[in-house]
Amino acid sequence: MPASLGERLEELRREVERELAAADSPEDVEEIRVRTLGKKGALTREAKAIGALPAEERPGAGEVVNAVKNAIEASIETRRAALSDVALRARLAEEAVDATLPGRRRGQGANHPLSIVTSQLLETFRRMGFSVATGPEIESTWHNFEALNIPAGHPAREEMDTLYVDADHVLRTHTSPVQIRVMESQRPPVSIVCPGRVFRADDPDASHSPYFHQIEGLLVDEGISMAHLKWTLTEFVHQYFGPEVKVRLRPSYFPFTEPSAELDIACQVCGGGGCPSCKHSGWMELLGCGMVHPAVLEAVGYDSERWTGFAWGMGVERVAINKYGIPDIRMFFENDVRFLHRFRGR
Ligand code: DAH
């Protein structure tokens, strides 16, 4: 016996319920709806078949079909709502922002101690009226030596273990050639300071490096004497290291100055009492200086009868070592971030 309309529809309804239970997205539910209630859907087919029934059976069949259709529609709607709710929750969970999480820290950089000390030194000299000049690291032997009164064969030239680029060019062994370049390019008066890197063929150890940094100074004007040199450099020491710090000038020799001197300050580690850092002398050598040699002025075309001047050169590493108590010059160039981080915020 063929199944009755009621049985077939009941079977269809159960089938749809099973499929809905297995559906796991709103798209699955839509697909079931089209397959059941769409134009060519299973239930739609049953509804169309009613027209072929004898007239007296139609109202009953229509009622049955409608009841099942309503039931199926309700089930589909329920399942669709449940699944969109799940999908929404999943999306919300995925896109959730936890506003209570701590922010990501940005790596904080630090200035290199040599940059810190260089800019402090330059600032001190700038306040005293000096301008900042620079020159090339690859320098002609004329600027690096001859113009500074160090002719070929001069013993001072042998002393500097020099890195030659070719016969006429060297990695500059000091910042003094910038004196020459500045004087070549302008008429007196001149008052400049010049920071820069210098090179010597030295084997590295705790106190030597094949490259290091200097700050050069030069002042040329009418009537400049050793008294101006002494006042200017003493004033610089008092401004940079402190107003009480003792200063002394010792006679020395440089080919490009006459007379020449070394300027010492009271040892910054022990205050002048004597300690291993100053080899128990109480003094620390800070810079070389002197009155610009007439031959240097003449080399750049200045009239040495009219113009006189003084100059000095100091090692930046030496200042930083003393200021921060750094035990080994190589630490400046290893770029170990633990060392560099000590200078954060300075
Ligand atoms: N150029 C010298 C050096 O490298 C330092 C120096 C000494 C510079 C005396 C000067 C100076 O300007 O007057 O050792």
Structure description:
- This protein has 346 residues and is of the alpha+beta class.
- Helix content is 42%, strand content 20%.
- It contains 13 helices and 10 strands.
- The strands form 2 sheets. It has a 7-stranded mixed beta sheet with strand order 1-5-6-10-9-8-7, sandwiched between helices. A 3-stranded antiparallel beta sheet has the order 2-4-3.
- The relative contact order is 0.10.
- Bound molecules: 3,4-dihydroxyphenylalanine.
What is shown here, in short?
The protein has 346 residues and is an alpha+beta fold. It has helices spanning 5-22, 26-37, 42-49, 58-95, 113-127, 141-144, 155-159, 177-185, 226-240, 294-299, 316-324, 331-334, 337-340; strands at 131-132, 138-140, 164-166, 169-171, 190-199, 211-222, 247-254, 257-266, 283-292, 307-315. The model has no long low-confidence stretch (mean pLDDT 90).
Helix and strand layout, with pairings?
Blueprint (H helix, E strand, L loop, with lengths): L4 H18 L3 H12 L4 H8 L8 H38 L17 H15 L3 E2 L5 E3 H4 L10 H5 L4 E3 L2 E3 L5 H9 L4 E10 L11 E12 L3 H15 L6 E8 L2 E10 L16 E10 L1 H6 L7 E9 H9 L6 H4 L2 H4 L6
Helix pairs in contact: 1-4, 2-4, 5-11
The site of 3,4-dihydroxyphenylalanine has 11 residues, from strand 9 and strand 10.
Structure annotation, total helices: 13
Q: What is the helix/strand order? A: HHHHHEEHHEEHEEHEEEHEHHH
Distance between the termini: 99 Å
The count of strands amounts to 10
What proportion strand? Answer: 15-25%
Q: Can you give the mean pLDDT? A: 90
Q: Helices and strands: which structural class? A: alpha+beta
Which radius of gyration do the C-alpha atoms yield? 45 Å
Helix content: 40-55%
**How is the main sheet built?**
7 strands, mixed
| Low-pLDDT segments, ≥5 res | none
Shape: rod-shaped
